[in-house]
Amino acid sequence: MAESLRGMVSTAHPSATQASLKILREGGNAIDAAMAGAWAISVCEPSGSGLGGQTTMLIHFPDGKRLVLDGHSYGPAGVSTKSVKSSSQRIGYKATTIPSTVATLGMAGSRFGKLPLAQVMAPAIELAENGYPVTRLFRKQVQWCRAQLLKNPAAEAILFRDGKVIKRRELFRQPQLALTLKRLSSAGADDFYRGEIAREIVADMSRNGGLITADDLAGLAVPIQHEPISTQFRGYEIVSVPPPGGGLQLLQALKVLELIDLDASDPNAWYETIARVMQVVYRDRLSWPFKPDEMTDSMHRWLVGADRAAELAQQVRAERKQEVIEDDEDEGDTTHLCVADESGMVVSLTQSIQSLYGAKVASDKLGFFYNNYLSTIPRHGKFLSLVGNVAPRSNAAPTMVFDSNNKSTPIMALGAAGSRRITSSVMQVIANTLVHGLAIGEAVDAPRIHGTLSGKAYVERRVATEEMVRRLGNSFHVVEVKAARSYSMGGVQAIARDGHGVWTASADPRREGTSSGL
Question: What's the pTM value of the predicted model, to 2 decimals?
Answer without folding.
Answer: 0.96
